[in-house]
Amino acid sequence: MSQVLRLLGAVLVLVALPVSAVIETYEFSDPALEERYQVLSAELRCPKCQNQNIADSNAPISRDLRNVLHQQLEAGASDDEILDYMVARYGEFVRYRPRFDGATAVLWLAPALLVLAGLAVALLSLRGRRRQQSPESAELSAAERRRLQELLEKTERDA
Amino acid sequence: MAPRLKLFIPLLLFAAMAVFLFRGLSLDPQELPSALLDRPLPSFSLPALGQERTLQREDLLGEPALLNVWATWCVACRVEHPYLRQLADSGVPIYGVNYKDEDADAARWLGELGNPYRFNIADRDGSLGLDLGVYGAPETYLLDADGVIRYRHVGVVDERVWQTILQPRYQQLLGGDAP
Description:
Chain A has helices spanning 2-16, 31-43, 60-74, 79-90, 105-132, 142-158. Chain A is mainly alpha-helical and 159 residues long. Chain A has a domain at 24-124: Cytochrome C biogenesis protein (Helicase, Ruva Protein, domain 3, Orthogonal Bundle). In chain A, α2 (31-43) runs antiparallel to α3 (60-74). Chain A is elongated, with a radius of gyration of 32 Å. Chain B is α/β, with parallel strands linked by helices and 179 residues long. A five-stranded mixed beta sheet of chain B has the order 5-4-3-6-7. A two-stranded antiparallel ribbon of chain B has the order 1-2. In chain B, β3, α3 (75-89) and β4 (94-99) form a beta-alpha-beta unit. Chain B is elongated, with a radius of gyration of 21 Å. The mean pLDDT of chain B is 90.
């Protein structure tokens, strides 16, 4: 019985989690708009709470921005127009994928540069290690192979 | 490179990281530069708080001034209020944006705590705040005589903020007017 209760409890916990994520709902005239709403609200960053997007944030400013987003989508604005509107007021900061320019170049290029640097270091150290190993070939020579064969046959005979 | 020198590479990497991290200690990530810096104040047409008139962008022009975004629900606004009165008494023009607030609450607040503002723009639904890029009251904008935003301070304006940040810029704007 207690096992059943425990199982029931676990199921209830799983069911209850998503509920806390919902903040408010908007009615959309077109499902495509709703899809864009989800994408844009996940990409726009809350200026107040900084490490949340406006879809997740409960801050008043996020509520306002979601409201603006909904209005503009319904009014037929394109994604670029909406993002430009937000950036004009809150700066590139408000986007989780800021435009590529002088200030954000480091942000965009650093990962690729670091990977390249890592590859370079790895290649150099691998090459260095190979050079340290014995220069002789790992392949057995004909004489060595003959000797190995002899030894194997000898052990077989003895056994 | 000599193998001995290679041993210093981790040390150099550490030093570079330490420099960046040390710099990070003195940066405030909450302090965002305004996207409107050196841009004109957005135009608006909103009622004045407690007056039968409509305010426009042009009403704020003519001399360098502070534009203070406040609300009665904002605790930090109450903290900075006495200092704003002090500034107003010393002759600094301060305009208020009463941001997403009830007019009656705001009027009571000004009646009880005193009024440092030349006038208050009643931004009931936060539309001007949105155009300004306000993300949390209090915010204080420094405007020049042409209504261009020269600086934005997010947070309480107190004596330290005024003397070290706002006043030097304000004086510069005043000086620019004189000659």
